[in-house]
Amino acid sequence: MNAELGPVEVVGAGLIGTSIALACRRAGIDVLLTDTSPEHLRTASGLGAGRAKQPEDVPALVVVAVPPDHLATAIAAALDGAGDDTIVTDVGSVKSAPLDALAAHPHLARYVGSHPMAGSERSGPLAASADLFTGRPWAITPHASSRQAAVRAVASLVEVCGAVPVRLTPEEHDLAVARTSHVPHLMSALVAGTLAGAAPDHLALTGQGVRDVTRVAGGDPTLYSQIIGGNSAAVAGLLREVRDRLDLVLEAVTDGDRVGLESLLAHGVAGTRAIPGKHGGPVQAVAAVHVAVPDHPGELARLFADVGASGVNIEDVRIDHDPGRPVGLVELDVAEGRAVELVAALESKGWVTHR
Amino acid sequence: MNAELGPVEVVGAGLIGTSIALACRRAGIDVLLTDTSPEHLRTASGLGAGRAKQPEDVPALVVVAVPPDHLATAIAAALDGAGDDTIVTDVGSVKSAPLDALAAHPHLARYVGSHPMAGSERSGPLAASADLFTGRPWAITPHASSRQAAVRAVASLVEVCGAVPVRLTPEEHDLAVARTSHVPHLMSALVAGTLAGAAPDHLALTGQGVRDVTRVAGGDPTLYSQIIGGNSAAVAGLLREVRDRLDLVLEAVTDGDRVGLESLLAHGVAGTRAIPGKHGGPVQAVAAVHVAVPDHPGELARLFADVGASGVNIEDVRIDHDPGRPVGLVELDVAEGRAVELVAALESKGWVTHR
Question: Boundaries of each ACT domain copy (chains A, B) (predicted)?
Fold first, then answer.
């Protein structure tokens, strides 16, 4: 179907690179693999992600999928080493810094940056999957002199991977990920840091809220310091705004200024409503239904069979971790108008629920 | 079974008060209801949560469940108005400030504070449930002169409600909730605030991480400004520490100090590992398995039937909101050693998975 895209060379057979290679192979595209680690290369080939690149191979598209600190060098090498018409893209988390480093490159018109918003807490080719990008946003970030043919080739790659293209300039992209990813990550790490060394009987009061807030803070510090460090201008700008607002919060708390505190909290509520909803549409009003579920295999299946029979679609689900009890609380989020119906259906099957 | 606890008077027939009343009624305890709103009182009685208190009724235990700003007044009224042996507790989110306000009360020995760690985004008696507290932590916070009989009565109430008692001094409680709830809430609100008014094509890159970080920021600003304002000393102290650490992060980002940044992020990782795991035990290493699931009723039931048949217990589950596609990604968290087995079981049933 998209065989005219190939051959595609993937430089860096880690999680992201190998996943892209697998998606291309699934579409019948010839894939050439390059990696400084012969072991990664063997593993990725063994998984059916493509064949090791030979000196005579000339790729039509090179996808650079190396760690953030090596992006600019690897992109330059790809532009230098391939054919006159070879398109080069990368999948790095930061777009301006590598582009700045490449500004004087004679073949820059053949380069278009990109960034798939997907990942896993695992890394390496064994964690790869052709489905890693299905339905995920994938930023395409042409610069001022990018060729149209290069932009089209990268858009085809995004399509082959089943992702949803989002077109942004490199500068806009970096501001966007500072806001939607890097600053939230740093704030999550700051909250998590306050829990390190806290008294266990204080931590016994931990609820779902702080678990949610600190979840992303569990990510690899080395990788995230490269990502955030590579986007320092955008991150520092936004972080200064947050620090100034934190000072206002601190002042309101210290002065007992309830009106000020409430207005800062209301600003946060407005922000949560700005997040795009499922399927990219406006956020739909959801209601939570809680169900008590015995904590052993089979009970969740029984619950979801009864949920399925009710005909009410589940927007989200989470299992609440309860200290000290062999019973779980499952939260089912459904459209606001359907909660009463779901509760009635589940209670008629003997489930203990509350909203 | 615990009928000797009664009669229990519940002051304030909102979500928490009515839920406690329902749990007591379920245990066969006589429940007396008081509320300034005749409508709440009628609704709660109608739900079977108890009967309106009459002048001749003398409760053995009074549970004060009113908004934070009215706690001290309502606790004092309960100590003044009831019998010489009546025990008084409250369920407020903050413990020191009301106690300070009551310091000179002649009957203070009959008061023991408490705080169930449960709630709902809904409020009012109609949202109440006898199961709201099942398996949740419930702090019991005696002060220096609390009678032992009073502490025992409150512990019985916690047991009747199916919650897990956590004994703390009022001061420790307030420090604990500043750390596990109030400061995380404020930080979540600050992150959410940066999304308000952001460009929609920037927000298109929003992933699950920032959704998690900002989830609690959707809570009612009026209620949270009362809660946080009532714990201002503990919150301000910890928030100052966080602000100082945020300044270090900002400095590391601005100076390109990767080592410093990485060490601050590693501190966050240590904090996420300090959070108590499921069943209050140490955190178990979990692995995530992702499954692509068509987004319509019935598919989740089919998935969980296959999960149940695999015999692998699910620690947590979440549905990833994907923009633009009618397919959901369900993340199943399982013990690290069982992930390979689960993937094999699901793929044999035709599910598309990745780790």
Answer: 288-355
